[in-house]
Design goal:
Structural class: alpha/beta
Strand content: 5-15%
Organism: Sphingobium xenophagum
Distance between the termini: 15 Å
Largest sheet: 8 strands, mixed
Radius of gyration: 67 Å
Helix content: 55-70%
EC number: 2.7.10.2
Keywords: ATP-binding, Cell inner membrane, Cell membrane, Coiled coil, Kinase, Membrane, Nucleotide-binding, Transferase, Transmembrane, Transmembrane helix, Tyrosine-protein kinase
Family: Belongs to the CpsD/CapB family. Belongs to the etk/wzc family.
Number of helices: 23
Pfam family, one: AAA_31
Oligomer: single chain
Length: about 700
């Protein structure tokens, strides 16, 4: 029994295989593809190497000269200047990128052209391999056109390198003349340094002008502030010197004194008020002030004596007695005097109370007046302080700007630039390009890649079958044999003897009982192949029945040189039996069931159960039944036949079936239920087999 060859898709989908096995299988298939198309790979590599050699021979040698400069983030100041800390890495990168763009600028290119006098001399254009510039309407005069051309050549051949994160710029120029390359590279470095110095000088001039303007403004602001301070101090009558005392100092002292007096006046008023309240409610004679008064005490003593004398005389005399009247008159006078003195004392208490109240009121009014004066003085001092601070601020700004201007003026003409020269460009002794080794290496790599690309494209887009390997790769079928080109003549039976022998091992029971022979497209030689295969099997002593199932273009009766009377179409329609329609082919062991009448729609006949009945009727009478089927693509007859036979055999023309036609035919046959045992390669024009001992059979 023949073992079917799996396609690439079948190998990928095969269960139980590890990734290493699948990778090995893919590598083996890739190696076979490269081995088969090795001529394409070798020719492509040779052509690419030849192109590289031609490029080297035809290229003009170019020389590259390199000068280097150092770029500092801060310019070197004058002697004794205080150094400024370096900026961060981001600012350094921005500075280096800025200098890089300056090198590539048109202005610097024009400076180099002027420095080397490249405009107006054709030697530079000849050295660069460029043509002489001619004037163009609308673009200026001839010199401007030449300048534009020279600057364009300078910028196109300039190379600037920033090695790593250093502060070094490598300036290179490439040209066919080594001396010119060195001169241009050094001129670029010198022009960059001069441009940096010029920018530094111009920026210093602009800075001094700016500082001078700011200094004049600060001077005017300081004069205005001092004038406003003097006017305000003169209007308010205050001093503006450093020794001037605050205007509210005396007011605060006086206010503290008045507050102390007010406290004493308050205590006096409370005491006078208590004394007056007591005198107003109590009897005048019982007042402490009255009792403590010496004159009042004397008067009261006299009154007591007069009253005692009156009481004594009343015991001896009557009230009408003159002495009694005199005694009473004297007592009444003393009473009037005592009352009058008590009233005067009470009035003095009231007057003292009124005086205390009046004094307290006056102190409160004076304190309120002083507080208002203190608030006014405080506001005046605040405003005066504002004027003083304004004067101090403008004076500080003026002094700072003045000192800065003096420093810049003292350093003018001594300031160094940011860019310092490192290495001068030397005249190169060896050409920079072309690089022979690198060019040949790139040509070799390009040839390999292009060759692999062409091989892959040939493998992907070319479905032509020319060997057993390509047949297995395209559709996963084993190749049973290959036959040479014979035109439309019948194939020699001896060529098909090995193929017929291999069919005896196609199944476990030996030769399959029914075999369908078809092709993907017409004209591939399927009918001739079936005819020769039937003759080879007949020579082996097998009884073979050939059924011409191609009812659209039947040819088997012509190959056997028979004239059919009935055929398979009559058998399927019930007009005759199989035994009556089968005829002797004239070859021992080979019998023929021709097509008969060509039906209008063969697919309808093949779809009936009559075909199954026919195959059942003839299966036991013959060793095998060979059925000639129509091409697969474009017709529906072959899938109907393939579903009813034991095996199918595909006939493939050598070098045909491009663009997936063969794959589509095999897929269609398999989807219909057909079992393909292999293929026969017809019309061979070269080697049909590429046997490899390492391929595994």
């Amino acid at each position: 029994m023949m073992t079917p060859i799996l396609s690439e898709r079948d190998l990928d989908a095969a269960p139980g295989q590890s990734w290493a096995t699948r990778l090995t299988a893919r590598a083996r298939r890739g190696w076979l593809v490269l081995r088969r198309h090795r001529v394409i790979l070798f020719v492509t590599m040779a052509l690419c190497l030849l192109a590289g050699v031609i490029f080297i021979l035809m290229s003009t040698p170019d020389y590259r000269a390199t000068a280097s400069v150092e770029v500092d983030d801060i310019p070197a100041g004058a002697a004794g200047a205080v150094s400024t800390p370096r900026t961060g890495s981001n600012n350094i990168e921005a500075l280096m990128q800025t200098q890089l763009e300056v090198l590539r600028s048109r202005a610097l290119g024009e400076a180099v052209a002027k420095d080397l006098a490249l405009v107006g001399t054709p030697s530079f254009l000849r050295a660069m391999g460029a043509k002489q510039a001619t004037g163009v309407a609308g673009r200026g005069n001839q010199r401007q056109v030449e300048l534009d051309r020279v600057v364009a050549l300078l910028r196109d051949n300039l190379e600037v390198d920033l090695p790593g994160k250093s502060r070094v710029l490598r300036i290179s120029f490439v040209s066919p003349d080594p001396g010119l390359s060195a001169r241009v590279a050094n001129s670029y470095a010198d022009s960059l340094i001069r441009a940096d110095l010029k920018r530094g000088f111009e920026s210093g001039v602009q800075a001094r002008r700016f500082l001078l303007g700011e200094l004049d403004g600060a001077r005017r602001d300081l004069a205005r502030a001092e004038r406003e301070l003097a006017v305000y101090a003169g209007r308010e009558g205050t001093e503006t010197g450093a020794d001037a005392l605050p205007s509210d100092g005396s007011i605060a002292t006086r206010l503290a004194q008045l507050n102390a007096f007010r406290a004493q006046a308050l205590a006096d008023r409370i005491a006078a008020q208590k004394a007056w309240e007591s005198a107003r409610r109590a009897s005048a004679e019982t007042l402490p002030e009255v009792l403590d008064n010496g004159a009042m005490q004397t008067l009261m003593t006299e009154r007591a004596q007069a009253r005692a004398a009156l009481m004594e005389q009343r015991q001896f005399r009557k009230d009408a007695h003159p002495e009694m009247r005199e005694a009473r008159a004297r007592l009444a006078a003393l009473d009037d005097q005592a009352q009058d003195m008590a009233n005067r004392i009470r009035a003095s208490l009231k007057e003292r109370y009124d005086v205390a109240v009046h004094g307290e009121t006056q102190l409160a009014a004076e304190i309120a007046n002083l507080e208002r004066q203190a608030q006014t003085a405080q506001g005046r001092d605040v405003q005066l302080g504002i004027y003083k601070r304004s004067v101090d601020t403008y004076r500080m700004l003026h002094d700072s700007l003045l000192q800065r201007y003096r420093d810049m003026a003292s350093q003018a003409g001594f300031q160094a630039g940011r860019i310092q020269p490192l290495d001068r460009a030397a005249v190169p002794t060896e050409p920079f390009s072309p690089r022979i080794g690198l060019t040949l290496l790139l040509a070799s790599i390009g040839g390999v890649l292009l060759g692999l690309l062409l091989v892959a494209a040939r493998h992907i887009f070319d479905d032509a079958v020319t060997s057993a390997d390509t047949l297995a790769e395209r559709v996963g079928l084993p190749l049973l044999g290959a036959v040479p080109v014979t035109g439309d003549n019948p194939q020699p039976p001896e060529i098909f003897a090995p193929i017929a022998a291999s069919l005896l091992l196609a199944s476990a029971a030996g030769l399959p009982r029914s075999i369908l022979v078809t092709s993907a497209q017409e004209g591939e030689g399927k009918s001739l192949t079936l005819h020769a295969l039937a003759l080879a099997l007949g020579r082996m002593g097998k009884r073979v029945l050939v059924i011409d199932g191609d009812m659209r273009r039947p040819v088997q009766h012509s190959l056997f040189r028979q004239v059919p009377v009935r055929g398979i179409s009559e058998v399927l329609t019930g007009q005759t039996s199989a035994a009556e329609a089968i005829m002797d082919s004239g070859v021992p062991g080979v019998f023929l069931l021709p097509c008969g009448a060509v039906p209008p729609n063969p697919a309808e006949l093949l779809a009936t159960s009559a075909l199954d009945s026919l195959l059942d009727a003839v299966r036991d009478e013959y060793d095998t039944v060979l059925i000639d089927a129509p091409p697969i693509l474009g017709l529906g007859d072959t899938p109907l036949l393939a579903a009813r036979v034991q095996t199918s055999l595909l006939v493939v023309e050598w070098g045909r079936n491009h663009h997936g036609g063969l794959r589509a035919a095999v897929e269609q046959l398999r989807q219909a239920g057909g079992t393909l045992i292999g293929a026969i390669l017809t019309k061979q024009q070269g080697r049909a087999m590429e046997y490899d001992y390492h391929r595994g059979g």
